[in-house]
Amino acid sequence: INEKSYACWLQYERIEDREWLENNKSRFQSIVVIGNSPILNSALNELNLGIRSMFDNEPTLYKKRVEEASIIIGIYDEIHNQFKELDTNRMEELNEESYIIKTIKNESLLLVGKSDKAVLYAVHHLLRLLQLREPIEHLDIVESPKNQLRMLNQWDNMDGSIERGYSGKSIFYENNRITKNLGRIKDYARFLSSVGINAISINNVNVWKLETKLITNEFLPDVANIADIFRSYGIKIFLSINFASPIEIGQLQTADPLDPDVIKWWKNKAEEIYNFIPDFGGFVVKADSEHRPGPFTYNRNHADGANLLANALKPYGGLVIWRCFVYNCLQDWRDRSTDRAKAAYDHFKPLDGEFLDNVILQVKNGPMDFQVREPVSPLFGALEKTNQMLEFQITQEYTGQQKDLCFLVPLWKEVLEYDTYAKGKGSKVKSIVDGSLFGFKYSGICAVSNIGDDENWTGHTLAQANLYGYGRLIWNPDLSSEAITEEWIRMTFGEDPFIIEQIKSMLLESWSIYENYTAPLGIGWMVNPGHHYGPNIDGYEYSVWGTYHFADRDGIGVDRSIDTGTGYANQYFSPNKEIYNSLDTCPDELLLFFHHVPYGHKLKTGVTVIQHIYDTHFKGVEQVDKLIKKWSTLKGKIDEARYSNVQERLILQLDNAKAWRDQINTYFYRKSGIADEKKRKIY
Ligand code: GCW
Asked: What is the pLDDT of residues 102-118, one digit of tens each?
């Protein structure tokens, strides 16, 4: 296998800078670990691996000789008596995942965590500094993650396929079994822990027949093996469950959440699971959504459903992560009153306060479905008494499927910085999901993973940046997109300033480029039904999915305003609702999400909607051309495997961008009859 492709951002390239080496080598001669646990062991192994490969020198491992070691790692409780340098007050205030890295008197480095997991994070922090060739002479770092749950959702099926996966097959399952080849899972755990991920659900939220049995003794021993691996990297595992399990695998006639036999069945089931996995994280649940079973069948609501499971998991400290992706997926396109965007809020807002405290509602960032541009879901801020977490999609279902380059950190950053005004100005999404605004007991961020068994994990090598960036951003949403991008490039491709600049601009512009050549002005969709790649303007127009653009000869867009439209804008707090509601103030990029306008409507830029469509679509293709040119300047400067992987995909991207440009432009030219002012080629 190609090591560089496989190693992602943990390249641990040999340090060539002589001066740097001379100055710092002595600091990495020996390590002592105080304490003993599987996680500390992982921390030590990683540190050892990193040092060995960057310094070309195997550090000596001491058992106890603290005075002689150049690096001392351990857990605060077991270590603090020995080091007066540790500020006890400061340490007491920190949480279980916090750590410090400190240079102490005799030039040794102290890496102390509040827990063994935190020690592992400290080690990764130090290795990152080394990979970035940062100055390390006088370190005094205190770090805590801002979000509590930092999670990934795998959409992996046991036949080895991955729903919306674009990077090969599952690393977890093959031939309807859990894989015996656990090495890759271990490396995945290493990557995830290096960016601070602490939870993972390991099967698709669409839980099919076989996957329903993951919570039976047929598969639990194998699930427990996977849990062991992740546990030693500080990551808890969760399973997606089938709400109808009591019927499917329990021989009951019903899955009614208020039925005593059903309640008992889940209680016993929880006990059984925790016998295998004592620190099992809990369940992720997609219920009454896209034909998956749920409480509606029994005339019960989502709180009844979630609380059933929460009661069962409670004795063991388990969580129920209940998804809010609930809408009518059998809509009649003739029906203009139903609005899919309103559904999640309509279903869950009335239930605020009715969920048990070990339930978390998982809400997608937008009200529709991970489109290239959507407003932020109005459920953020609307739930004051219910634990909430945010769901992003790292896998590029609607954003180019890892053929097209689309770096998503800037999008996620916008979502986290969005002000909901739920408690007045400054009620940002990031302070809702970090629990601080409403004092949630549990909260955080999760995302659908983009990895598979491709050699480079993510299909497109540059899509590794999305996984890395996701982890870094949710650890600390205050990090800038630029800083995260640069970190990733330097760790992945090294220190050459030219390489860094080229890739940095490619990544940072890619989201806007993708937006330029696909569906315009926040309208979304217009993709091929089913697989969702490539243009198909009317692909979903007369479908059951509630995803329409309503283009006719006069205009385009969905009227979601309060007086004349579906009223969706009303789900926001003031002043957001007024901003979206009015044509004068609605931001251009979301115009067609909120309003139906004539093609001649002037945007804030002064350009008409139709001319904007033409301009952006021609521009998008030119921009992809430039991406190809930029990348070609790196030939010979980076290894051939990664170079050609990206080059091949950029060529596919260009084809796709042209297909989008020509279909979108032609479609709207034919609908509107309005010519391009610049008289470019439209078919
Ligand atoms: O984005 C849509 C996808 C489905 C997915 C669903 C969901 C797992 O097209 O493939 O199902 O959302 O989030 O549940």
From this structure: 999 878 999 999 999 99
